Amino acid sequence: MAATRTFSIIKPDATRRNLTGAVTAKLEEAGLRVVASKRIQMTREQAEGFYGVHRERPFFNDLVSFMISGPVVVQVLEGENAVLRNREIMGATNPSDAADGTIRKLFAESIEANSVHGSDSDENAAIEIAYFFTPEELVG
Ligand code: CMP
């Protein structure tokens, strides 16, 4: 099967605790390759746009404030069935539901400060990658 791509964010709770390398190691151990990566400070407008689908949810404002509370690392991951593979290694959104050995079980602090984001479909992966990266930045 051909390699596909997904989009990942290492969230502020993880960068704050110096876990960028530890999280990336779990992704790589899961068979995913980091083909683009940058550490950025998101603006409020950027975070609101990225999470626009959640705009009506009660947690939206807190989520946006959290995502701009410190730097994040945005990444493009490549591998076989990348979206699914990444979701498996991330674990459930709420760390109390996450399986042993997953990133969220190991590192997440709460459902909000849950260390990583990953795309939920190939279609959204393409949209999310294009939101943060130009084609020239996907260096393989
Ligand atoms: P993420 O995959 O980045 O997508 C939306 C985020 O909203 C989710 O991870 C959680 O970190 C965050 N969030 C905060 N509260 C909730 C909640 N009650 N239900 C779902 N997601 C939540």
Description:
39% of the residues lie in helices and 20% in strands. The chain has seven helices and four strands, in the order βααβααβααβα. Strands 2-3-1-4 form a four-stranded antiparallel sheet, with helices on both faces. Adenosine-3',5'-cyclic-monophosphate (CMP) binds at residues 54, 59, 63, 93, 111-112, 114, 117. Residues 54, 59, 63, 93, 111-112, 114, 117 line the site of adenosine-3',5'-cyclic-monophosphate (CMP).
Number of helices: 7
- Main sheet? 4 strands, antiparallel
Low-confidence spans: none
Task: Tally the beta strands.
Answer: 4
How far do the termini sit from each other?
18 Å
**Percent helix range:** 25-40%
Which percent range describes the beta-strand content? 15-25%
Strand order of the largest sheet: 2-3-1-4
Spatial shape = globular
Bound molecules: adenosine-3',5'-cyclic-monophosphate
Helix-strand topology string: EHHEHHEHHEH
**Class by SSE composition:** alpha+beta
Characteristics:
140 residues, alpha+beta, four-stranded antiparallel beta sheet, 7 helices, 4 strands, globular, binds adenosine-3',5'-cyclic-monophosphate
